[in-house]
Write a structure and sequence with these properties.
This protein is mainly α. Helices cover 79% and strands 0% of the residues. The chain is globular and about 50 Å long.
Length: 392
């Protein structure tokens, strides 16, 4: 599969794509509104960051206990039920008088459900397109994510500024409901990819199998840690520039879109496979400028350039799919998604803690430096293993 036209002519891809688009806008609008609501109520960079990304913290629980469901649930039913649940949970976040601990309880429940949803979603994409079309399809989804994040943060920022965070949350809940309708009407009924009942034991066995191979292990670490630490920087946009956070989020989404176009459509395969680690270094490097507390235009430019580096995930996902047996594709991609989001949640909490002790700008610089350091360690490990294999 070589062209976008061929991709959108594939049966079921378009409704699947539209439903995911609606969910992405809902997620970004809701996250910005909730972060703003919590920051206004508490004045805490830590609580604001965790409210936006805290649902990721429980992804590790889903990956440990629930992920076998990703290949054992009927995809259409699961992808209809999940956005309905998200719609109800997001509407509940808009209730006046809800205490902060209640907000966080709902956020964590959403994260637990999404830990299974990622595996179901990306496993179904691989089923619709097959392995030869997965990279192009995933690049389109990543580009869509960038565009929809721009739209979501711009719309959410306007709603928060002109109306209120609670009305923005209600609008996000409506979009989740729309996504559920599109999935139910646009996708055909499919059986689960794997037989048997979901169980903790099945989840552990598959996780152990996936983690046992050193090449897959390296791919997972590269997908999870450098990316997650930079998302810790993003979690501080609200506290760094309370009145312009939507602009910074939109610029990050624009940079991510450019990186996905570059990797998914422009670069030839031979060159693309060598750019995974350099792109991860680009993801962290521009954040060094935040140590100087730059004005908004400079900060926006740095964020845009850095976010081009998110294209590294496409290189690594292509390798992960190639290294994974067909019957475990949904589980493997779900483990990637859950691990990545967990790392992002931990990084958001860590970044918020550092910001409490120093400043948001200093914390962003620290997180970016840690991301670059981890990338350099992974590069060294990969090089040593290549030399070891070559010497045999």
């Amino acid at each position: 599969m070589r062209s976008y036209r061929e991709l959108f002519r594939t049966p079921e891809f378009t409704p699947f794509f539209l439903a995911a688009s609606a969910q992405t806008v809902a997620q970004t609008m809701g996250g910005l509104a909730l972060g703003t609501l919590v920051y206004r109520a508490t004045g805490s960079p830590l609580l604001s960051a965790v409210s936006m990304f805290g649902s990721s913290l429980v992804q590790v629980l889903g990956a440990t206990f629930l992920l076998s469901a990703a290949d054992r649930l009927p995809p259409r039913a699961a992808l209809t039920a999940l956005p309905l649940f998200f719609a109800a949970a997001t509407a509940a976040l808009a209730l006046p008088g809800l205490p902060v601990w209640g907000l966080f309880a709902i956020v964590l429940a959403k994260g637990l459900a999404e830990s299974v949803g990622g595996g179901v979603r990306w496993g179904l994409l691989n089923e619709i397109l097959s392995k030869d079309g997965y990279l192009l399809g995933r690049s389109v989804f990543n580009m869509m994510s960038g565009l929809m994040q721009i739209a979501g943060y711009a719309t959410g920022g306007a709603l928060v500024a002109l109306l209120s965070p609670r009305l923005s949350l209600l609008a996000a809940a409506g979009l989740y409901g729309t996504a559920a309708v599109v999935v139910r009407l646009g996708l055909t009924r499919r059986p689960p990819r794997t037989t048997g009942r979901p169980s903790v034991a099945a989840t552990w066995r598959a996780n152990a199998l996936l983690w046992s191979a050193p090449p897959r292990r390296q791919v997972y670490l590269a997908l999870w840690i450098p990316n997650g630490l930079v998302v810790g920087c993003e979690s501080l946009y609200v506290s760094y520039a309370p009145d312009s956070a939507g602009t910074l989020f939109a610029c990050a989404a624009l940079g991510m879109l450019a990186g996905d176009v570059l990797v998914g459509r422009v670069l030839p395969p031979a060159l693309r496979s060598r750019l995974g680690f350099p792109l991860l270094l680009l993801l962290a490097g521009p954040y060094a400028v935040f140590l100087l507390h730059p004005a908004l235009p400079v900060a926006a430019g740095a964020v845009t350039l850095a976010s081009v580096g998110f294209g590294a995930s496409l290189v690594q996902q292509e390798r992960l799919v190639a290294l994974t047996p067909d019957g475990l594709t949904g589980h493997a991609l779900g483990l990637h998604s859950a691990g990545m989001l967990t790392t992002q949640g931990v990084a958001a909490a860590l970044a918020g803690s550092v910001a409490q002790l120093t400043s948001p700008a200093a914390a962003m610089t620290v997180m970016a430096g840690a991301s670059a350091g981890v990338t350099l360690l992974l590069m060294g490990t990969a090089r040593r293993e290549e030399m070891s294999v070559g010497g045999r």
